[in-house]
# Entry
Amino acid sequence: MADLEQIMRTTFACRSFTEEPLPDDELTAILEIARFAPSGGNRQGWHVIVVRNPDTKAELIELSVPAIELYVAQRAAGENPWNTVEPSSVDPATVSVPPAATAWYRELAKAPVLLVVALDLRVVASADRHLDRIGVISGASVYPFAQNILLAARDRGWAGALTTFVAAAEPAVQSLLRLPSYVAVAALVPLGRPEKVLTKLTRKPVAEFAHLETWDGPALGAAPTNA
Ligand SMILES: Cc1cc2nc3c(=O)[nH]c(=O)nc-3n(C[C@H](O)[C@H](O)[C@H](O)COP(=O)(O)O)c2cc1C
# Structure
């Protein structure tokens, strides 16, 4: 087993895979570790659909494309794509994006396995449901699990990426995979043997996102702690 810190520092988003299959026993071993993720009330509402059928994989990718096209168009307009705070100047009905702009996403269909990570909303405590903003708490009962999949995969020499565009087409995905209506689509995770292993990830330094006491307090690590 590799060192935890090294695994956490190098679990990159893998988008190109060799043709090596990812067998069920390896996948089981990955999920066996990932299942120790936390969830609200330990309700463990996650479900995983393991997709290897090429037609189903292609369909899942195609269903995601309109959401990506909007993402690309909003980015090109200098916006933070899909954000719910600042209004967008992009009309989704008129978005026109060259196929090359979404080719990278279509590559994901070549992964030996696509995992659809789903969440049974009947067991999720959404503590922010009454707030006048987009919900974030519900996701906390599934994304630690999804990240654990990536960490466990990395530890065993596999790799993947957490993607969410497919959720924009949730009703179609529910129908394709026969998910009940109360089961939300949380992520599409391509998994396989990475074509290239990346080990230098770009992340903000701690002092840029952690502050002492208040939002505008001194950056953590930038001021004497006994001041
Ligand atoms: C909520 C979420 C959605 C994401 N959606 C996608 C996606 O649709 N396609 C993709 O290739 N990567 C997706 N990613 C992966 C991010 O692009 C990736 O984590 C980030 O760029 C850092 O990449 P790195 O770990 O290789 O440095 C997503 C990640 C998160 C957390």
User: Anything to note?
Assistant: Residues 12-13, 15, 105, 161-165, 198, 201-202 surround flavin mononucleotide (CB under 6 Å).
